[in-house]
Amino acid sequence: MADPAGKATNHGYALARQLFDIRGDDLHVGGLAVREIVSRIGSPAYIYDGGGMRRAYRRLAAALDGFASIYYSVKANPARSVIRLFVEEGAGVEIASLGEYRAAIAAGAAPGRILFAGPGKRRAELEAVIEGGIGEIHIEGLDEIERIRAIGKRVHASIRINPVPDVQVGAMRMGGKATAFGFDEEDLDAAIAAVTAAPNIDLAGIHVYGGTQILDAEALIGGWRHAIDLASRVARTTGRPLRTVDLGGGLGIPYYANDKPLDLDAVAAAVPELTARMRAEPLLADARAIVEPGRFLTGEAGLYVSEINALKTSRGVRFLVLDGGMNHHLAASGNLGQVIKRNYPVVAPARMTAEPDQPATVVGPLCTPLDTLARDTGLPELRAGDLVAVLQSGAYGLTASPVNFLSHPQPAEALVEEGKIETIDRFRSMDVLPNREET
């Protein structure tokens, strides 16, 4: 990108100053310079700021105070150190597989504070979580009802509802069209009848998830209002009170130059009205609202850092070739669902005072042109051995990437807080993330 005078621009530097400490030339995470962290754990690396995650959680908890409980959505970043941090902060946990359940338990989550969502739950997964203890299972289809009925043990469950199209928002819409997720709103009465007919399923509530990466507070609040109305409809149909109203996640963070952050003040201002809306229905008077963010809690606190391996110029374009790329960070390459590829914010974390006005295209080591992490962005003059950091990388990073493509090494990972580095052994973490159903 270039400004009107023709100089390269880069919004990453302003964002880095908002999110992290800058001391001299160095960007600091958790009290340590990024280059010091990399010297100790290696490159490429994911570095997570524990303090930043705690601040995000506390800001959201303050905005939702008196209205909703927070359940961390493990899919955003399933590292046990990260899950444990949010459990320490008081969060529940939302999981979408048996592997995530085991990771949550290993991180110290209480079974009764875990919700199990996601389509296509296998019988063995359902048996395992019911046996181990689970707060709620969010039922997504008739097959799940039959599997739970056949298991025979009593369990609390919520009905996941695919809402009507006019309440869908976000970068990726999770409902409002033909989808594998939940029961269509127009089929809700049949879903209620099927769940309540199962003698071992206690209908605890509903789950509505409208979309992801939502930055519009009014749109988010509008979706929550609709979910509360659906909960009231379910309670009236059954004539029984509900325990929970899961409003879903989808809270976004600003990735691109013109993105505006989600206005938590506007969310907080809507809390009295949302609370009154629930209390107006006697069968929801004692219900607990749930919000299940992932990206919002972890995304801004993460960096993907990689070392420049080579520089070259091809037909007037300056390329910085890193030792890691889309195999570690598919989202930053624009190949994780983006229709138009736009740059994630990138900085040179050990050259923060240098003018970032030299256009550069940042690529990884893979033999494909898809392996591009930034296109024509402004960076200082750099050389082999310098570091490049991709901001906004704490969510949907390593575990959402094709890490085995071309068989390059796995990146290091670390949670850094108050000057202490806690390395994350992803291979050890995978011990609790089985890739096959147990018999």
Automatic annotation (TrEMBL):
Gene3D superfamilies: Alanine racemase, Lyase, Ornithine Decarboxylase, Chain A, domain 1. Its cofactor is pyridoxal 5'-phosphate. Keywords: Decarboxylase, Lyase, Pyridoxal phosphate. InterPro entries: Ala_racemase/Decarboxylase_C, DAP_deCOOHase_LysA, De-COase2_C, De-COase2_CS, De-COase2_N, Orn/DAP/Arg_de-COase, PLP-binding_barrel. The keyword Lyase applies. Residues 46-394 form the Orn/DAP/Arg decarboxylase 2 C-terminal domain. It holds the Pfam family Orn_Arg_deC_N. Residues 54-298 form the Orn/DAP/Arg decarboxylase 2 N-terminal domain. PANTHER family: DIAMINOPIMELATE DECARBOXYLASE, GROUP IV DECARBOXYLASE. Belongs to the Orn/Lys/Arg decarboxylase class-II family. This is Diaminopimelate decarboxylase.
